[in-house]
């Protein structure tokens, strides 16, 4: 897998697979923050301190494989154009913070894009592993195996009382963020999500948008993750998150059933109006596109629409983002030009206009 493959393909290979409860839970992710012992953390380190870290990953792990995660490739931030960085952020292969780095920062990315190890972001190492659907236990198990594999050659910054030491105090302890990406259109339509979010926050969890902290919940997609990393084991954190996510799945299913029973024709009308917008629009903004794609995805899940693949919608959720639009066009586009290109690309991908 080459850099161009990471950038040109909107949907990662692992995203094409079905997972448990994938009609509601789009993906499960485990992220582990780690640092080298006796090396200054990246947020205050000099270039001379950071360079050996990236060089180490280049020599020890680039073009290596770990179990089924084949051909880890090191992508260096200083070798990427701004649009290329944005594309990797839109695919969740790197964080917005890493994209802002220039010297001595990078990411090891597996061939199937399921594993990404960010180097010299806020911490020296940020391991992240994705699985389709609701598979937090499996993601945790394999993320810890990758962690152990790296630790064979790395002396981690670790304290017997505090656990793993990290740049941000909120990550000290396990250094773990467990999260799920959920599509919750019915809870949004019925406005139940507005009262649920404060209750979820009180349980030590946080609800964010599709691109994490500070982002909007575009297309009714919400990221649910833990806030507490100290004083609990990795398994405890995952179990707490699983309990809340399972309740959200049940609530979303009930809300969908209620909408179909009480407002069936109105729901069907909304879904097919959104489908019509995607089918015929010549100009469409990102928020409207995300809303319409969410409606159509709901329509597929409920059986109203049967001839559109959910994979195409997953692809379009990424492909219609600003970075991908410009990468696809091979040029920098103004916001108005992106809106025109977005509408054209949606029609093309849905094969509704040749």
Automatic annotation (TrEMBL):
Regulation: Appears to be allosterically activated by the binding of pArg-containing polypeptides to the pArg-binding pocket localized in the C-terminal domain of McsB.
UniProt cross-references to InterPro entries, sorted A to Z: Arg_Kinase, ATP-guanido_PTrfase, ATP-guanido_PTrfase_AS, ATP-guanido_PTrfase_cat, Gln_synth/guanido_kin_cat_dom
SUPFAM superfamilies hit by this protein: Glutamine synthetase/guanido kinase
Domain Phosphagen kinase C-terminal: 24-255
Domain of life: Bacteria
Molecular-function GO terms, alphabetical: protein arginine kinase activity
Role description: Catalyzes the specific phosphorylation of arginine residues in a large number of proteins. Is part of the bacterial stress response system. Protein arginine phosphorylation has a physiologically important role and is involved in the regulation of many critical cellular processes, such as protein homeostasis, motility, competence, and stringent and stress responses, by regulating gene expression and protein activity.
Family: Belongs to the ATP:guanido phosphotransferase family.
Name of the protein in question: Protein-arginine kinase
Organism of provenance: Thalassobacillus hwangdonensis
Origin organism lineage: Bacteria, Bacillati, Bacillota, Bacilli, Bacillales
């Amino acid at each position: 897998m080459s850099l161009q493959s990471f950038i040109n393909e909107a949907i990662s290979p692992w995203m094409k697979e079905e997972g448990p409860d994938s009609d509601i839970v789009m993906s499960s992710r485990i992220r582990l923050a780690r640092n080298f012992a006796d090396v200054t953390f990246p947020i205050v380190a000099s270039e001379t301190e950071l360079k050996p870290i990236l060089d180490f990953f280049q020599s020890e792990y680039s073009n290596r494989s770990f179990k089924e995660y084949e051909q880890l490739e090191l992508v260096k931030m200083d070798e990427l154009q701004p649009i290329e960085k944005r594309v990797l952020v839109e695919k969740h292969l790197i964080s917005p913070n890493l994209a802002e780095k220039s010297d001595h920062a990078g990411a090891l990315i597996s061939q199937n894009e399921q594993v990404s190890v960010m180097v010299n972001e806020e911490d020296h190492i940020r391991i992240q592993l994705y699985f389709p659907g609701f598979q937090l236990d499996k993601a945790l198990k394999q993320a810890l195996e990758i962690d152990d594999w790296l630790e064979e050659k790395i002396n981690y910054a670790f304290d017997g009382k505090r656990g793993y030491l990290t740049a941000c105090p909120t990550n000290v302890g396990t250094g773990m963020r467990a999260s799920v990406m959920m599509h919750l259109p019915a809870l949004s339509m019925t406005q139940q999500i507005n009262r649920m979010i404060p209750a979820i926050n009180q349980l030590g969890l946080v609800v964010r948008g599709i691109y994490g902290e500070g982002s909007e919940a575009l297309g009714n997609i919400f990221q649910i993750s833990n806030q507490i990393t100290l004083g609990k084991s990795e398994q405890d954190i995952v179990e707490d998150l699983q309990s809340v996510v399972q309740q959200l799945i049940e609530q979303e299913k009930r809300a969908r059933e209620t909408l179909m029973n009480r407002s069936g024709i109105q729901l069907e009308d909304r879904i097919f109006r959104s489908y019509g917008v995607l089918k015929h629009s010549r100009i469409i903004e990102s928020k409207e596109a995300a809303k319409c794609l969410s409606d159509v995805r709901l329509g597929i899940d409920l059986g109203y629409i049967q001839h559109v693949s959910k994979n195409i919608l997953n692809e379009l959720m990424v492909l219609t983002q600003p970075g991908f639009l410009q990468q696809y066009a091979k040029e920098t586009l103004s916001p108005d030009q992106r809106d025109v290109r977005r509408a054209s690309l949606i029609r093309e991908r849905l094969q509704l206009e040749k």
